[in-house]
Specification:
The chain is 30% helix and 27% strand. By secondary structure, it is of the alpha+beta class. It has one domain: Beta-grasp domain (Ubiquitin-like (UB roll), Roll). Helix 2 packs antiparallel against helix 3. The termini are far apart.
Length: 82
């Protein structure tokens, strides 16, 4: 399936891109994050540990829940300021 991943703030810096679309067989957010960690390395993995996630605009609390078909996943690290 096609998965669009949008990175914000520190996640964008760690991934080196604001957005990517990939063909993936990841069925869950956990599986997708593992695939992205393999692709981008430890720096992005450390961001994942602190990030929140939106899947198709909805907060995704359980990373073991199955992803919908062709989702957009937003990676939202903690933001400074306010």
């Amino acid at each position: 399936m096609k998965i669009t991943v949008r990175y914000f703030a520190a996640a964008r810096a760690a991934a080196g891109t604001p957005e990517e679309t990939l063909d993936s067989s990841a069925a869950t957010l956990d599986a997708l994050l593992a695939e992205l960690a393999d692709r981008h390395g430890e720096r992005l993995t450390s961001v994942f540990a602190r990030a929140s996630y939106l899947v198709d605009g909805t907060a995704w609390r359980d990373p073991a829940t199955e992803l919908p078909t062709n989702p957009t996943v937003d990676v939202l690290p903690p933001f400074a300021g306010g």
